Amino acid sequence: MAVLSGKIALVAGGTRGAGRGIAVELGAAGATVYVTGRTTRAQQSEYVRPETIEETAEMVTAAGGEGIAVRVDHTVPAEVEMLVERIRREQGWLDILVNDIWGGEHLTEWNKPVWEHSLDKGLHMLRLAIDTHLITAHFALALMIERPGGVLVELTDGTAEYNATHYRLCPYYDLVKTGVIRMAWAHAKDLAPHGATAVALTPGWMRSEMMLDIFSVTEENWRDATSVQPHFVISETPRFTGRAVAALAADPERARWNGQSLSSGGLAKVYGFDDLDGSRPDCWRYMEEVMEAGKPADATGYR
Predict the structure, then answer these.
(1) Is residue 151 predicted with pLDDT exceeding 80?
(2) The CATH number of the domain where 145 resides is what?
(3) What mean pLDDT value characterizes the chain?
(4) pTM of this prediction?
(5) 178 pLDDT exceeds 80?
(6) Which structural domain range is residue 148 located in?
(7) Backbone angles phi and psi of 191, in degrees to 5
């Protein structure tokens, strides 16, 4: 159903992973989606990955929306300003902003305290995952508030409740993922008087392109990875998070979530959507009740 027909969305950081899944599901709901990132068919980012923003935009269009790929380095304010000016010129408004800029996988040194972790890598991670979100919000939200009803989704890893009691195994990663949750809360305070909503959203254990490569599997045979990591049985596709964003954006009462930390599995219970395989993974509950409790891997009752 084209419930988002006529809506204009910007998925900042939509080259792969959750960003791609969100862009495609917004397209499936009928939205026009601007997809940004640094990797195009002509130019790669420091990731040196094969996914491109053009591919994502084509997937958006194939799903039923209109995908528009724009190469943007979100650490450069002038490039983000030009992007928003283009959206204003071509569309006149912005309804949905998804801040999914990340880029820190290759920078994280797990289980190292700050005095052992590379300072350059750590500070670069903050630049990629905190500064970019603020830069993008600075320009894009100024356009979004010109019409009431806009929604900002800040993508992170972990709910506020989970992250409050769990160290995310790297001081920089921990700061980034908890910081984005607080950022959404702060934006919510500023957006509410303009009739707009801001939330933080986390996927569960997501089967991104990079995660599938780590386990040397594909989406078709992903369950083979459970022989190496049994708890991978709770994993979900990037499209599951995409369906969470689409459902949130289509909810006329979404202001009830303003400032809150949400999860794909949690919103699935409220809105009734499923993952591509028809299941409904509840990863964060599984993590605490099964994985961290030392129980054998078993997703029964959790998907």
Answers:
(1) yes
(2) 3.40.50.720
(3) 96
(4) 0.96
(5) yes
(6) 8-208+237-280
(7) -85, -30
